[in-house]
Design a protein that fits this description.
The complex is a heterodimer of chains A (643) and B (1068). Chain A is 38% helix and 5% strand. Chain A contains 22 helices and ten strands. By secondary structure, chain A is mostly helical. In chain A, helix 2 (43-54) runs antiparallel to helix 5 (123-135) and helix 5 runs antiparallel to helix 6. In chain A, the strands form five sheets. In chain A, strands 1-8 form a two-stranded antiparallel sheet. Chain A has a two-stranded antiparallel sheet with strand order 2-3. Chain A has a two-stranded antiparallel sheet with strand order 4-7. Chain B is mainly β and 1068 residues long. Helix content of chain B is 11%, strand content 44%. Chain B is globular, with a radius of gyration of 34 Å. The chains are: A mainly alpha (643), B mainly beta (1068). Chains A and B meet through helix 1, helix 2, helix 5, helix 8 and helix 22 of A and helix 1, strand 29, strand 30, strand 34 and strand 35 of B.
């Protein structure tokens, strides 16, 4: 038996060795592989996390990321463009929005990869914002004043992400704190909260952030783009203006939009005092902005203006308010730059195939929308009665500031306001910029007719309508004269909010609070008009309109303010959202997209109106669809009406 | 936690070393101890005196005298050798025992007693494999095996192919196998044991062990069938549970040949085969192509412009000029009809008492079916050369100690086109047949051009697949080296039936590749003269082309693994009734990857475990077995790192009962019933490692920057690619098996039938119920999935040798394996009113797709039908069924369609027969219950798209041209929907429209052999010479005729090959 005992002992020894050694043997992972705690161990890493949250800021100047640019009626594109073919967001305008794989899906698209399609889900940075707020006490070397400012900044950007989603989807779930990962399936099935609650939540975030944000940025070269008090106040005012607008204030279209808890998601009762609240917030925002040095931009203050005529400067004022780097009108500029995609497709290619796209074109409706030189709509202008808008006319000496002398174009391009010449590139027009920035007599001419274009006409590089938005192209952006080399784009900070926007919103809010418009209402809209060389509203209509009393009524004034916004903020991706807010998309976006026959060279053929596309807008299109798979995952989530 | 980090790597390698050190130490002690026993015995016997002489003769089985037989007195060093006549004489005394031994013959021991003359007959050694079955970490008597193990004779895996896996389909009951590509080097067949019972992203393939060492399926495919001693698949829990957390998907166990005592044996085999595609997709003719391209441009757009003018069509039809109006059959220009492949191997074995050897080498060359360009000095065709060397040496170190050294190397030299053969096939179908010819004969101006004048278009950016094929070549070289040392010690003298074994092994793999290529010059015709046939060419890309080769370095892969095991084994029979055995084993494995790519991946993969087997048999009638595996894996959190996997089985050999003997045994000679139950795990649940850790990517997230010139503070954010989950652990399979073994007609017919059921839990799954509003960076995973497997494996063997020498072997096997989702975390589809979306209860490879009602007849029908959310659709496009009747066709209308994508049934049957010198065999293989989908996306014709900076145009398959919807013949049941010259996603959704039944039956192989008569071979001093002609994939029966059905949806790839082979096998 001794032998067996010996074997038994051996086996025991085997096992002991095995167990003692093996648990260590399997510990292959070193301790300091990165965890979320490492992101908050010191100031440097925490700053990275902060910037990571900001990096989700949708690029409002990108044709794919801001549906405001391509999903509406303000600009059209061509199929299979060379440099930037068929942006996803454009498919919405073409009627391809769907629930299976929604376009511009800021709710549930992946963070990156196949289905992101320009959009990325904003719930992730919202969660990260909460993670940041939970952990920002950790970095050992973060000073208190900076911690306070960063917290305010995160609350600001979280508010903006909520606002972005709110604009698209309306009611939203609110995450004041994160739901832990280990939460049960029931806990993660959140409800959407009503419009009013969402607005209050956004406002509360901004109210918390405002005291700790700086009035202005001191270190321009390293810090410009950081949230400031004027930014937060402007955003708050914008949110409250949305809340007061017809879409969200007593919109009975959504009377039956009720979730399983019985909560009515859209307030059904119109409350005029919401306009008052908006007006107050706007006033506060404007005052703080003034205090911080923001003012309407004047191109005459730039060094380039020395050799320019007064009229060119007036035309450049509105363009400069957008493209002039960090001009004083910009309350919130996108410090990443990133305007190149838009500039390329908006740039009139002086030489074809030299790096420009030229494929983003405003439809005729937008071109017609600009006022006459008298500051009133052309169909209301006394001088324009009987004028054949589309009748051919040759550029003459009297108009040689904006139209090439001797070039055959049409009446529509003559005698328009300065903002038209500053905003739209048209057939036969003159182009300030593209290498010619001093002598306006020798400016480039911009022919859109097929074979007049320098370098020829290309199917993958042309405007769909015969126009391009000049306004968003920086005047220092130039083309190479060598074929197949890229243009040199002068990037600028896209204005997410600029002062004129606030002025016009303020005028709008005041008009809504008053029985009849008064001087207060006119004051701010007239400031904007005056900057572009137009008389005040009352004066202009009185002297030039066939409806001189229009500014004297609340309804007439509302229409004037709306049109003023659409002109002043044209091509800035704002019209699309404004139309929704005013509940006017159905009216505006059920009309065809019109343009010229861009394949033709002869003016008689070119200037024949083409119906490029029949836009359709239904009630359901006011709100984005939520992806079907999300509804399957969360039984408490309710789809937007009509989808 | 945070301070003691750097120590880890050094510290962790120690334990395994110490185990093996201990093992060796233990063995040395044991050896010393045993030697002492021997010495004692010898001393005792030396004390006696030899008092007489014994004479005799040693004969073989046939009565011939055996010279050179060693005769020793047991327990002493005395001995003699027989003379040339087999005679011997030796001094002995009556208590002595004599041992007669001779190479290759069974050793005999005889007690002398009172004899003075002793004639001895020595028998040949019997191949012990006939009686034993290879099981996990050892062998078991075949009779006493109660687990489900299917062994196959290695010669059945011999096919005219240099890839072993291509022979698997239909050969083994319990294995599902199929092959989808015929490209040399890429032609590994897929194979699964008892189907796939997991739906995680992890390993679903069986564990493959060659000589007990874990290898990849690629290593297995490179194994030469002549080198295989045994090949078996382990299917049920009892068979695989010893592999613990690695065995859940079944195990393939291969052992290689070892040298046997005997004179040198040499076997040489040389084969040459002719290989050609079984079936290729047919393309439409160029005129049809152009007409339909015009239709595609116009049918959806009234303003569409015809891409081809009537002038061009007419001239092409008339064959006016081959360069101005080219028509190109790209498949014909690029690919050959046949190619030749060669294989040769040699193995040498033999040895004596001290050392035995098996040495083998083989060489094979597989060529592709690509054409080469005559102007090129290099060969762009696929040329895959494989060299294998194997050396297995067994050494008898002492009488009770055996050492085995196995060294094995596989080397591959590949030379081929820049793109893979499959990609080239794809390109050949992605080019217009009429836009430009493959190349031009030089015109006057270019008569002295040194380069080929490839056809091109516009600025040369149109892809010319021929140019793409011949513009360069890729070379890659890989080697796998394996070395293994094993020591076996028999402790029988100490404790009867006790033995021990240690084994260590290491493998190294390395590979590098490089490419050399030039940039083609493209030309187009600018003028041609109809009368003289003169033409003028213009160069399209004077700046783009190069006359010389450029060089590009490719990737380099290196990896290593080390493995060790130590075991003790006990085996004894008490009172001739109680057969008891026990085994304990310890194993450890580590593998490293030299191209890890990340810190986490660079950490060693380790697996360590202990396993044991205890069997008890009573009187060869009642059998019981208990096995266990106890495993740890570095992948999981400490709390879930170790798993215990027990199993047990019972067996009853009914035919050994006394009541059986009467009469029944003549018909049913063997009847065994066996059942097993147990747990097995699978720790390779995902490619991802260390689920218990979060993976946070600091400074790798989105960028944001500040500052006036966009150049102020600039920082990257943080992303999280994995959230920590310490609870994640391996899959567990609960397996049941019920087996029946029947032998009929004195063993002529052998039937093996197994019925099994498996319940797999803890399948890793991405959480399905986490809405986007959670805002997570990545969706967490959890061990929530469950699946069940159910099936039958049956095999039937018939062996008979007729009295006239005619022999016949017939075999058949049938495998049915069905695995279904038992639990799958998914949305609450029942609540959403779409219960058909739920996966639960459906097979794991079930596909969900849309049910097609037909093609829209007209625009009115489009208007009045539910909205289909896949972009544009019009008359002639596919109309889907609105299952939930909500007026929208979207993902809610996806329903299970067809069979699973891998077959649920595999079967095979064949007969081998021979008479005198001629032998003949054939083998059929089939599969059933699978579906596949024609890839409508890549088959859509007339799509122009850009890839890698080049413009491609999709070609037109003939079956589309033959039957498609057009405005002239709006057939709602046409095979192909309305044409378009851009993609219509509506028509490429997974649907019943493009679903096909994957079942088929094929003549997988056939062979006729002729062996030279013995008279001749004796004269030539050869043992055996056999000539044979064999073939694979000779016939195919299926309902599908567009391409080889076994390729499934991959029909546009490199086709499967039909091979006719000529071989000779010589042994001496």
């Amino acid at each position: 038996m001794k032998k067996y005992f010996f074997v038994f002992v051996l086996i025991v020894i085997y096992y002991c060795t095995f167990f003692v050694s093996c648990s260590d043997y399997l510990d292959v992972v070193p301790d300091n592989i990165p965890t979320i705690d490492h992101a908050f161990q010191n100031r440097h890493e925490a700053e990275g996390f902060l910037f990571g949250i900001f990096s989700n800021l949708p690029n409002s100047s990108h044709l794919n990321e801001n549906p405001g640019l391509t999903s509406g009626d303000e600009g059209w594109l061509i199929e299979n463009a060379f440099a930037f073919p068929n942006p996803m967001a454009w498919r919405i305008a073409k009627g391809e929005q769907n629930t299976q794989s929604p376009i511009a899906n800021y709710w549930s698209s992946r963070q990156s990869g196949g289905d992101s399609q320009g959009a990325h889900r904003l719930w992730t940075p919202i969660r990260d914002a909460n993670v940041f707020l939970d952990n920002i006490f950790k970095p050992f070397d973060l000073e208190e004043h900076e911690r306070v400012q960063w917290i305010a900044e995160v609350k600001f950007i979280k508010a903006y992400y909520y606002f972005w989603l709110f604009r698209m989807y309306g009611p939203l779930p609110i995450f004041k704190e994160n739901i832990p990962i280990s939460a049960s399936p029931e806990e993660v099935q959140v409800f959407r909260e009503s419009v009013e609650e969402v607005v209050e939540y956004i406002v509360s975030l901004l109210d918390e952030s405002i005291p700790d944000l700086p009035l202005q940025i001191m270190d321009l070269f390293s810090d410009l783009g950081r949230p400031t008090k004027p930014m937060a106040l402007a955003l708050k005012a914008q949110v409250l203006t949305y809340a007061a607008s017809p879409m969200y204030n007593g919109n009975t279209d959504y009377a039956n939009f009720i979730d399983s808890r019985g909560i009515i998601l859209f307030p059904q009762e119109y409350k005029p005092d919401k306009w008052q609240r908006a007006a107050d917030a706007l006033k506060e925002a404007i005052d703080i902005a003034h205090e911080a040095g923001h003012e309407l931009f004047d191109f005459g203050t730039t060094s380039y203006s020395k050799n320019l005529s007064e009229s060119t400067i007036l035309a450049m004022n509105v363009r400069g308010a957008v493209v002039e780097r960090w001009n004083p009108e910009v309350i919130w500029g996108d410090s990443r730059g990133g305007t190149i995609v838009y500039q390329r497709e908006a740039f009139f290619g002086i030489y074809r195939k030299h790096g420009t796209g030229m494929t983003y074109g405003p439809p005729l409706t937008i071109v017609e929308q600009f006022y006459s030189k008298n500051g009133v709509p052309i169909d209301e202008d006394v001088d324009w009665q009987g004028v054949d808008w589309y009748g051919l006319k040759i550029g003459d000496n009297a108009h040689n500031r904006f139209i090439r002398e001797g070039f055959t174009t049409i009446n529509l391009h003559f005698n328009r306001e300065y903002r038209f010449y500053g905003s739209v590139t048209f057939d036969g027009g003159l182009y300030y910029g593209a290498g010619k920035i001093t002598d306006d007599k020798d400016l480039h001419v911009t022919p859109f007719r097929a074979n007049l274009q320098p370098g020829g006409f290309y199917t993958a590089y042309h405007s769909p309508t015969g126009y391009n938005p000049k306004k968003v192209v920086h005047y220092l952006t130039t083309q190479s004269t060598v074929a197949n080399s890229d243009a040199t784009y002068y990037d600028y900070q896209w204005p997410i909010i600029r002062l004129a926007d606030l002025y016009l919103m303020y005028a709008e809010a005041l008009n809504e609070t008053k029985g009849i418009p008064d001087a207060d209402v006119y004051e701010y809209i007239d400031k904007v008009r005056k900057r572009s060389g137009l008389d005040g509203v009352a004066e202009s209509w009185q002297n030039h309109s066939i409806k001189p009393d229009k500014p004297l009524t609340k309804d007439g004034m509302r229409k004037i303010i709306q049109r003023e916004r659409m002109i002043e903020l044209a091509f800035e991706g704002i019209r699309f959202w404004d139309l929704r807010r005013w509940k006017l998309s159905e009216e505006y976006m059920n009309k065809p997209i019109r343009g010229w026959n861009v394949y033709e060279t002869d003016p008689n053929e070119f200037y024949k109106v083409q119906n490029i596309f029949d836009l359709k807008f239904e009630k359901k299109d006011y709100l984005w669809p939520i992806q079907t798979s999300e509804l399957l995952k969360n039984k408490n989530l309710i789809q937007n009406p009509g989808w | 936690m945070k301070k003691k980090k750097m120590m880890l790597f050094r510290r962790k390698t120690l334990p395994i070393v110490s185990i093996f050190f201990l093992m060796f130490l233990f063995n040395s002690i044991a050896l010393l101890a045993l030697d002492e026993f021997d010495c004692m015995n010898i001393e005792k016997q030396n004390g006696l005196q030899q008092n007489r002489t014994l004479r005799g003769k040693v004969l073989d089985e046939n009565g011939n005298p055996l010279p050179g037989v060693t005769i020793t007195v047991v327990g002493s060093t005395r001995g003699v050798i027989t003379d040339t006549n087999g005679n011997y004489s030796i001094d002995i005394n009556s208590e002595d025992e004599l041992e007669f031994s001779f190479i290759g013959l069974e050793t005999q021991r005889i007690k002398v007693e009172n004899r003075t003359v002793l004639y001895v007959n020595l028998k040949e050694k019997i191949d012990e494999l006939e009686e034993v079955t290879i099981v996990a970490f050892g062998k078991q008597k075949k009779e006493s095996v109660i687990s489900s193990i299917q062994a196959i004779r290695p010669q059945e895996l011999r096919m005219p192919s240099s890839n072993l896996t291509t022979a698997f389909a239909g050969r083994m009951a319990g294995m599902i196998s199929y092959q989808t590509s015929g490209e040399p080097g890429q032609d590994d067949a897929s194979f699964f044991i008892r189907g796939i019972t997991s739906f995680g992203t992890g390993k679903i393939n069986p564990l493959i062990l060659i000589d007990n060492v874990e290898v990849t399926s690629n290593d297995l495919s490179r194994l030469h069938p002549d080198d295989i001693e045994s090949f078996s698949i382990l299917k049920d829990a009892t068979a695989t549970t010893l592999y613990g957390a690695r065995g859940a998907n079944g195990v393939i166990l291969v052992t290689t040949k070892e040298g046997k005592e005997g004179s040198i044996k040499v076997s040489v085999r040389v084969e040459n085969s002719i290989s050609s595609p079984t079936k290729q997709i047919e393309m439409a003719d160029p005129i049809t192509y152009m007409n339909m391209a015009n239709e595609a441009a116009r049918t959806r757009n009234a303003l569409g412009v015809d891409p081809y003018t009537q002038y061009k069509i007419d001239n092409t039809k008339n064959g006016t000029d081959p360069y101005a109006f080219p028509t190109v059959d790209w498949m014909d220009i690029m690919f050959k009809d046949v190619t030749m492949n060669q294989r040769a191997n040699i193995n040498i074995s033999g040895g004596g008492k001290i050392a035995r050897y098996y040495i083998a080498g083989s060489v094979s060359q597989d060529n592709g079916i690509l054409n080469r360009d005559v102007t090129n000095l290099f060969n762009n065709n696929i040329d895959l050369k494989k060299y294998l060397v194997r050396s297995n040496i067994n050494l008898s170190l002492t009488k009770t100690t055996e050492g085995i050294i196995r060294v094995h190397g596989t080397f591959e030299d590949y030379s081929g086109p820049l793109k893979s053969g499959t990609e080239l096939y794809n390109l050949a179908l992605n080019v217009s047949p009429v836009r430009f010819p493959a190349y031009y004969e030089p015109d006057k101006k270019n008569a002295h051009a040194k380069h080929t004048l490839f056809g091109g278009y516009d600025q040369g950016q149109y892809l010319n697949p021929y140019a793409e094929m011949v513009r360069g070549f890729r070379e890659s070289n890989s080697s796998t080296m394996m070395a293994q040392i094993e020591l076996k010690q028999d402790f029988s003298k100490w404790i009867e039936g006790l033995s021990g074994r240690v084994m260590g092994n290491t493998q190294r793999y390395s590979k590098f590749d490089l490419t050399r290529s030039f940039n083609p010059f493209y030309y187009t015709t600018i003028s041609y003269d109809r009368r003289t046939g003169d033409y003028e060419l213009s160069q399209l890309n004077p700046q783009g082309g190069t006359e010389y080769l450029s060089y590009n370095e490719g990737g380099k892969t290196v990896s290593s693994s080390i493995y060790g095991e130590a075991s003790i084994l006990y085996n004894n029979i008490f009172s001739e009734l109680h057969d008891v055995s026990g085994m304990l084993i310890f194993t450890g494995r580590q593998s490293l990857n030299g191209n890890a790519g990340s810190l986490v991946e660079s950490l060693p993969s380790r697996n360590i475990g202990s396993a044991g087997r205890f069997t008890y048999g009573y009187d060869s009638k009642y059998l019981a077995e208990f096995n266990f595996g106890y495993n740890g894996s570095e992948k999981f959190d400490k709390g879930h790192r170790w798993g215990f996997f027990p199993s047990f089985g019972l067996g009853w050999i009914v035919s050994n009962e006394s009541f059986w003997a009467r009469g029944i045994s003549d018909i049913i000679s063997k009847l065994k019933i066996r059942g097993t139950y147990g747990l097995v795990g699978n720790d390779a649940i995902s490619d991802q490692r260390f689920f218990y850790l979060s993976q946070v990517n600091i400074n790798q997230g989105g960028n944001f920057k500040l500052g006036y010139n966009f150049s102020g503070i600039n920082r990257n954010g943080t992303t999280i690619s994995q959230y920590e989950n310490p609870l994640i652990t391996w899959e567990i399979a609960y397996k049941q098996n019920l087996g029946l073994e029947v032998g009929l007609l004195e063993g002529k017919i052998d039937i093996l039938a197994d019925l099994y059921k498996e319940h797999r839990i803890n399948i890793l799954q991405t959480r399905a119920d986490i809405p986007s509003t959670m805002g997570l960076w990545s969706t967490p995973q959890a061990n929530v999935g469950e699946a069940t497997g159910l099936g039958i494996d049956i095999s039937l063997d018939y062996n008979h040798i007729f009295s006239n020498g005619l022999w016949i072997i017939a075999r058949g096997n049938y495998t049915y394996a069905r695995s279904t989702y038992e639990f799958y975390e998914e949305s609450d589809y029942a609540r959403a009113g779409v219960p058909w979306r739920s996966k639960i209860g459906y097979p794991i490879a079930q596909q969900w797709g849309y049910i097609v009602e037909g093609l829209f007849i007209d625009d009115a029908e489009v208007e009045n039908s539910p909205r289909q959310e896949f972009g544009e659709f019009a008359a002639g496009d596919i109309k889907y069924k609105d299952l939930n009747a909500d007026g929208v066709i979207n993902e809610l209308d996806l329903s299970p369609i067809g069979y699973p994508t891998f077959p649920e049934i595999n079967y095979g049957f064949g007969v081998s027969t021979g008479y005198k010198n001629v032998d003949f065999s054939f083998f059929f293989q089939g599969s059933a219950r699978s579906s596949f989908w024609i890839n409508a996306h890549s088959l859509t014709p007339f799509i122009r798209y850009t890839s890698g900076g080049q413009i491609l145009e999709t070609g037109l398959a003939k079956f589309i041209a033959d039957d498609y919807w057009s405005e002239l013949s709006p057939n709602p049941q046409a095979k192909w929907p309305r044409l378009a010259n851009y993609r219509i996603p509506n028509n490429t959704q997974r649907s019943t429209k493009f679903m096909r039944d994957g079942s088929f039956l094929r003549l997988k192989s056939a062979e006729i052999g002729y062996s030279l008569p013995q008279k001749i071979t004796n004269n030539l001093k050869l043992g055996q010479v056999r000539f044979y002609v064999s073939g694979t994939n000779l016939l195919l029966f299926s309902k599908f005729d567009l391409w080889d059905i076994e390729m499934g949806g991959n029909g546009l790839g490199y086709p499967l090959q039909k091979v006719v082979n000529l071989g000779v096998n010589v042994s001496f």
